Amino acid sequence: MKKFYLFTSLFILCLASCLSAQAKDVGGIIDEDTVWTKAEIPFIVKSHVTVIEDVTLTIEPGVTVKFDKDKSLLIDGTLVAQGTSTEKIIFTSNGEQKAGYWGFIFFSGASKDITFDPNGNDWFTKKTSPHRRVSCIFL
């Protein structure tokens, strides 16, 4: 009987840890201020994500965002994503680990200005165009 309780307890602990570590699928329009927290990682972008004007998406340090093929993050509002030296924010592929697998992060003319790390630790590069388009480096 003791073995049964031990086995049951271990099974429940394993099940609880597996469920808490599941990814969170995201996609569609973000129409209210939203925070992607480290506790919910990784975030899997299943369809394009659009942050509308006057809305903020905050991505906490330590968060990983994985994009399905050709999916993108479109910013008409505000994106706040500031990692630390020990807890970086990673934007990467949810499939093949090759350049061009996922789409891009796009800042429209309606979005807030882009702020870069003054120490040169940028994980993206700013391209000149009428709109602000940002390409991420795969980590």
Write structural notes for this entry.
With 139 residues, the chain is mostly beta strands. The chain has one domain (23-136). It has 1 helix and 11 strands, in the order αβββββββββββ. It has one helix at 2-20, and strands at residues 24-30, 34-36, 43-51, 56-59, 64-67, 73-75, 78-81, 90-93, 105-107, 124-127, 132-136. The strands form 2 sheets. Strands 1, 3, 5, 6, 8, 9, 10 and 11 form an 8-stranded mixed beta sheet that branches. A hairpin with a 4-residue loop joins β10 and β11. The model is unreliable at 13-20 and 122-139 (pLDDT under 50).
Derived structural class: mainly beta
- How large a portion of the residues is in β-strands, by DSSP E? 35-45%
Shape: globular
C-alpha termini separation: 49 Å
Give short descriptive properties of this protein.
139 residues, mainly beta, eight-stranded mixed beta sheet, three-stranded parallel beta sheet, 1 helix, disordered C terminus
Summary of the model, kept short:
By secondary structure, this protein is mostly beta strands. It has one helix at residues 2-20; strands spanning 24-30, 34-36, 43-51, 56-59, 64-67, 73-75, 78-81, 90-93, 105-107, 124-127, 132-136.
Per-chain topology:
Layout lengths: L1 H19 L3 E7 L3 E3 L6 E9 L4 E4 L4 E4 L5 E3 L2 E4 L8 E4 L11 E3 L16 E4 L4 E5 L3
Parallel strand pairs: 1-3, 2-4, 3-5, 3-6, 4-7, 5-8, 6-9
Antiparallel strand pairs: 9-11, 10-11
